[in-house]
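Final report, Chapter 2: Outcomes

The project's central promise was a pipeline that accepts a single protein chain and returns its three-dimensional structure in a standardized token representation, suitable for archiving and comparison. That pipeline is now operational. To close this chapter, we reproduce one record exactly as it appears in the project archive, with the input sequence first and the structure output second.
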Amino acid sequence: MRFSIVNIGCKVNRVEVDAAAAELMARGAQMVQGEPADIVVVNTCTVTAEADKKTRKAVRQALKANPTAQLVVTGCAAVMNPSWFESLDPRIHVVAKPQVADAAWKLFAPDAPHEAVAAHGAPARSGLGFRTRVGIKAQDGCNNACTFCIVHVARGASRSVPMAQVLADARTQAAAGARELVLTGINLGAYDDGGTGLAGLLEALLDACPGVRFRIGSIEPRDVDDALIGLMAESDGRICRHLHLPLQSGSSRVLSQMNRPYDAREFRELVDRLRTAMPSISLSTDIIVGFPGETEGDFQQTLAVARDAVFSKIHVFRYSKRAGTPAAERADQVPAEISADRSMRLQELGRALCQADARSRLGTSERVLVEREGQGTSESYHPVRWRAAGPQPGELVRVRLTELSEGGIFYA
């Protein structure tokens, strides 16, 4: 069986579809890229109206590029509107995430016997088609209800992967050669397995996987507690001193209307605590511009918080109405041209802050994961390149950061 993967959306989506791909390959299937396949798995996203459009376009393109293939469509958009996808073409089959590998196999060879590889543990996600940084899913779902977001509906209530299962997956990936494991979840900071929170899980992972470093994929500000900060500070980089903290807005008024459980002052105080414990920590973020009712004054407050936090990277999102959310029903939508202007200004600030953070690291040493020939990613999540022959992909090496390009790339 030849299969290909089309993935849209968040890091959790990537981890889930990688797991399905690894299981298919363990059964003997071949993953192909850029050429016709027997089965195409499309992993969808519905976080915004734009994501919905991108998803539908991807499905149509997959049908056209693979005229004889069966399509397994899964993910959040498929959960929210399965009938739309199924009515598009008889070759489309909407499938829940855990059944992707089984469904793909049965579509290709309905009468062929097969054994569910997943019953014997998660296969290693390494080799062609997989990233060097391997994602480990620890949590799913969300109990929050941000007014711009539909994910809590698509994904359901928060639930945690049992710690024993997370540890087993991590050991498998480490044994296969992974040197950086990225913990992921829809609301990762809500992890709770019988009273063991995220810090406890990470402590167990450090013991279970010597020689491996861990990165926290994304975490809500209110979930960063003293236990997690202390463990990160004491781990000597085995838990990357980098956090992705979604700010969304620097205006407390807008944050309240977004139903975010913190205000701008609390976010600033968290950043101060993190930098006191780990002066070298790198902080990246998500920010939405043009949320309904956002004024220029609100936007200026966002710029001020971003400057104070010295984010190493800002993912800028222009607000996009998502049907079914409270924010989409508001009458005070921000005109598109104003959102575009604010997006441009925030991106410009983001580039300047990224360069400033990188310059502050010149002359220091960090461990770098080599991800492909001559390229890697530092602990602080900056790109690093080698001018001459360097270490091999997959290696985790300490590098002195002595040269920085105008584009924010370190050279070693």
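Archive annotation: The radius of gyration is 22 Å.
This record, like all others produced under the grant, will remain available to the consortium after the project formally closes.
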